[in-house]
Amino acid sequence: MVQHSSTTVSTAANGSSGPSESADDDLPSVMTCANYLKLPPYSTKEIMYKKLLYAISEGQGSFDLS
């Protein structure tokens, strides 16, 4: 499974691939140059909260300016 800004592509058992059926599977993304947070249209605030916390905790220390 490959995750991009607001589209998740997965390969099914029959070999076909396509966008996810739910934005709830996608992670938020950012454009740091413009201080812009891009959120998929999550179905609930609880899912949005969990996805934001996951993205923040997993992304810590992975973006450094030299």
From TrEMBL:
Active site: C33
Top-level lineage group: Eukaryota
Membrane-crossing residue ranges in chain numbering: none
One term of GO molecular function: ubiquitin protein ligase activity
Signal peptide: none
Entries under InterPro entries matching the protein: HECT_dom (IPR000569), Hect_E3_ubiquitin_ligase (IPR035983), HECTD1/TRIP12-like (IPR045322)
GO biological process: proteasome-mediated ubiquitin-dependent protein catabolic process; protein polyubiquitination
Stretch list, region Disordered: 1-27
Location of the HECT domain: 22-66
PANTHER family: E3 UBIQUITIN-PROTEIN LIGASE HECTD1, E3 UBIQUITIN-PROTEIN LIGASE TRIP12
Protein name as catalogued: HECT domain-containing protein
Source organism per UniProt: Vitis rotundifolia
